[in-house]
Amino acid sequence: MLSVAVCDDEMLDCCNMAKNIKEILEETGIPFIVRQFSSGRDLLNAIENFDIVFLDIMMCGINGMRTAQLLRDKSFDKILVFISASRDYVFQAYDVEAFQYLVKPVDHLKLERVLQRAVKKLENDSQEFMMIHQDRRKKKLYLRDIYYFEIKGRVVSVHGVEGCFDYYEQMGTLEDELKGKGFFRCHKSFLVNLKYVDSYNRQEILLDTGEKIAIAKRRYEAFCQEIMEYMKRSGGSI
Asked: b/e for 191-218, b at 16 or more Cβ within 10 A?
């Protein structure tokens, strides 16, 4: 079941957004639930694991941007959509990996397109996987759970949600297998999942996990282009 949260301290706006979301999702036939919150604190205290969060920015108490930061700190890695009467926070939205930035009043057709892309992304993220050979058996790896690959000779170390483990493969073969799936070879020894990139400079990439990955000078420009394209594909506002 698709779980959606709408957080806005303007009660009328919150109710209207929830109503419009329900109307759109009802037409898709997807089982869903939509919950409403009147403050960032109430949202943060909720026990549900939401798939999509629609979050107003200019709220009393904890504003939407701070609420989003705290959500990410709590390992919320699903879809975050900002709604605001102002365009002033568009660039700050990148810092918390916003999927989309909607300006009030939100156009119904625009909301419908955003929901369609969000549902598609959730489906793709949950299903994509690869098979590897490890200890004489095949193991399924979901791409969403991999932070990065590290190569040491012919040994590939997988760093991800399940921890770190090794298997034998050539980095070139692995790179080809993951082409177009949100991974980038930023260094001869590293293949990083762009989903987990928090920030970067010419020397290194900082991941959401706090880990730092080296980036080769000759790959920096290509990386910048790739991360921007990835953000566009993921629904972000550039």
From this structure: bbbbbbbeebeeeebebbeeeebebbee
